[in-house]
Design goal:
CATH architecture of chain B: 3-Layer(aba) Sandwich
Strand content of chain B: 25-35%
CATH superfamily of chain B: P-loop containing nucleotide triphosphate hydrolases
CATH architecture of chain A: Orthogonal Bundle
CATH class of chain B: Alpha Beta
CATH superfamily of chain A: MetI-like
CATH topology of chain A: MetI-like fold
Order of helices and strands of chain B: HEEEHEEHEHHHHEHEHEEHH
Number of domains of chain A: 1
Helix content of chain A: over 70%
CATH topology of chain B: Rossmann fold
Distance between the termini of chain B: 47 Å
Shape of chain B: globular
Number of domains of chain B: 1
Helix content of chain B: 25-40%
Oligomer: heterodimer
Bound molecules: adenosine-5'-triphosphate, magnesium ion
Distance between the termini of chain A: 55 Å
Number of helices of chain B: 11
Structural class of chain A: mainly alpha
Largest sheet of chain A: 2 strands, antiparallel
């Protein structure tokens, strides 16, 4: 009697423990995913409520005021927002072309794998250097190295507002350059993955139609990898805007705005790092407000990235 | 277009090879290929898997040049021009000799841009819309896609994608079209459509087709080369041509025992 039931049941029934495991897996992973979302919301909520006093006091004027005076309790973050945007922009300006170039070089068959693998590894290692080490390197190596170049820029192109001051040693441009090195491996590694993921069949199709290597790269491979590359750039931009330690060490931490990238400046994150420890009252709230703005900026970057990727993504 | 290749278009034998030996590194993949390919004919390559059909096919448009370990000795003439002569640019060769691959491989671009890609590379000055339409019609795809030329080529069905790839290959008006198992991922109906298409295309083009489908070879081709593979003393499995003749001869009265066995399905 037992045989007949088990026979008919066989093909459809899996053991209970296996089903349970399946269900359990879905639940556990689901809980983790929701958990991450909740943490994000909790942080946003906390930063939001803590910044409320400053928001009520300064309103949107906070974004347009450059004065940051603890004594007068007048706070405005324009200097820092400008610093954040400009340093990130400089970083992208340098790191995007180099990063994509490196990625292309390492995804094509210019080098035998024996040489290519170690180079890929070394570039990824760049991402593993602690940012305080970058900061030290910036102070002792990069800034002295950049000084003559800064002086030359100011002497010859001083009429352009962004080069209008004599270099002060530390400064916005040094921070931008440090950032570019820090985000280079992100861009290079993600772009390379995106390029390598383009199917060889498509590459062969282009060559088969008589495309040269360059035509194939620029008209087929890069467009096909576009969404992945943009994703990498946006991740790098997020990193650049949030990076604190190295920037704080080389930017000079001046709270007065100057358009010149050769001058000292500060970013939202360097401001937070510098002031949080001994801040109180409205200053804390203003710092929270600044943090909220940084939060907003990164959110905008990510949404933009998502839109760009959707708009241009090429399905493979 | 390079003048050497331009002059080459005139003669009647499209390809002529003399004792091709093709290697991947030390591995001799195919040996002693001596064959003539005739103009406006469909030539089929048949034979068991791994006997080097694709390898030989890719020599005709120098696509093997992309494989680093590839090298070759012997001679390969394209209408009296040595295709592997130093002054020949492989890019030019591929503009004359188009290819359709086993797996449909449309670009991740619109249907229109898939077709226009090749002509744009060549600096085509004429009416592109007209060329796209004509190529799609020749590939029997126009009715399927005429209302959605802006949609992605990769969103089409497998059979439609393969016809798109054929349209893309003929849009550059090559002299020869190489096809490596073009129907292997297609359903029987699409396969028949492609076969009909081949008959139309051979009016204008010379076609080489690799196929595992015996019926297809016997139905669609004019000449057939039967490849086989044999282990040599070093244990390398090297392919060679057993027999090359008119398709009726290969299928009805082949000279070789092995051919007879293969085409009648008694191969082992
Ligand atoms: N890129 C390559 N590198 C090294 N060896 C290769 C390469 N391509 C093919 N070969 C080898 O060359 C031989 C012939 O391969 P080829 O692909 O030409 O066979 P085929 O007749 O087309 O087979 P199939 O019918 O399965 O497509 C095989 O032994 C294969 O392993
Ligand atoms: Mg093959």
């Amino acid at each position: 009697m037992a045989t007949s039931t088990s026979r008919t049941a066989m093909p459809t029934q899996r053991s209970n423990s296996s089903r349970l495991l399946d269900k359990g897996f879905v639940w556990v992973t689901g809980a983790f995913a929701i958990g991450v979302g909740l943490v994000l919301l909790a942080i946003a909520y906390r930063v939001g409520t803590d910044s409320l006093p400053a928001i009520q006091r300064f309103g949107l004027g906070f974004l347009a005021t450059t004065r940051w005076s603890v004594n007068d309790e007048v706070f405005g973050a324009l200097t820092q927002i400008y610093g954040t945007l400009v340093t990130s922009f400089i970083a992208l300006l340098i790191a995007v072309p180099i990063g994509i170039g490196v990625a292309l070089f390492l995804s094509e068959d210019y080098l035998p794998p024996r040489i290519k693998q170690p180079i890929v590894f070394l570039i990824e290692l760049l991402a593993a250097i602690p940012s305080v080490v970058y900061g030290l390197w910036g102070i002792f190596v990069l800034i002295p190295l950049l000084r003559p170049f800064g002086i030359w820029l100011n002497a010859n192109f001083g009429w352009i507002p962004i080069f209008s001051t004599a270099p002060a040693g530390p400064g916005i441009y040094a921070a931008g350059i440090i950032l570019s090195i820090m985000i280079l491996p992100i861009i290079a590694a993600i772009s390379r993955d995106a390029l390598v993921a383009v199917p060889t069949e498509i590459r062969q199709a282009a060559y088969g139609l008589g495309a040269t290597r360059w035509e194939t790269i620029f008209q087929i491979i890069l467009p096909a990898a576009f969404s992945g590359i943009v994703g990498g750039i946006m991740l790098a931009l997020g990193r650049a805007m949030g990076e604190t330690m190295a920037v704080t060490m080389v930017i000079g931490n001046s709270n007065s705005i100057d358009l010149s990238i050769l001058s000292q400046g500060s970013t939202v994150s360097s401001l937070l790092a510098n002031q949080f420890a001994e801040a109180g009252g409205l200053q804390v709230s203003s710092l929270m407000y600044a943090a909220l703005i940084l939060f907003g900026l990164t959110l905008v970057v990510n949404v933009l990235a998502e839109l760009i990727v959707r708009r241009f993504s090429l399905k493979l | 277009m390079a003048p050497e290749l331009q002059n080459a278009r005139k003669t009647d034998t499209v390809f002529r090879t003399e004792n091709l030996n093709i290697y991947y590194g030390d591995f001799l993949a195919v040996r002693d290929i001596t064959i003539e390919i005739h103009k406006n004919k469909i030539t089929a390559f048949i034979g068991p898997s791994g006997c080097g059909k694709s390898t030989v096919l890719r020599c005709f448009n120098r696509l093997n040049d992309l494989i680093q370990s590839f090298h070759m000795d012997g001679k390969l003439f394209y209408r009296d021009q040595d295709l592997y002569a130093a002054e020949i640019d492989p890019v030019e060769v591929r503009r004359q000799i188009g290819m359709v691959f086993q797996k449909p491989n449309p670009f991740p671009k619109s249907i229109y841009d898939n077709i226009a890609f090749g002509p744009r590379l060549l600096g085509y000055k004429g009416d592109m819309d007209e060329l796209v339409e004509r190529s799609l019609k020749q590939a029997a795809l126009w009715d399927d896609v005429k209302d959605k030329l802006k949609e992605m080529g990769t969103d089409l069905s497998g059979g439609q994608q393969q016809r798109l790839c054929i349209a893309r290959a003929i849009a550059v008006q090559p002299d020869v079209i190489l096809m490596d198992e073009p129907c292997s991922s297609l359903d029987p109906i699409s396969t028949l459509k492609v076969e009909d298409l081949l008959q139309e295309l051979k009016e204008k083009y010379t076609i080489l087709i690799v196929t595992h489908n015996m019926q297809q070879a016997s139905r669609a081709s004019d000449r057939t080369a039967f490849f086989n593979v044999e282990a040599n003393a070093k244990g390398q499995r090297t392919g060679y041509i057993v027999e090359y003749d008119r398709t009726e001869v290969i299928f009805q009265s082949p000279q070789e025992q092995a051919t007879q066995a293969y085409v009648s399905g008694r191969f082992g």
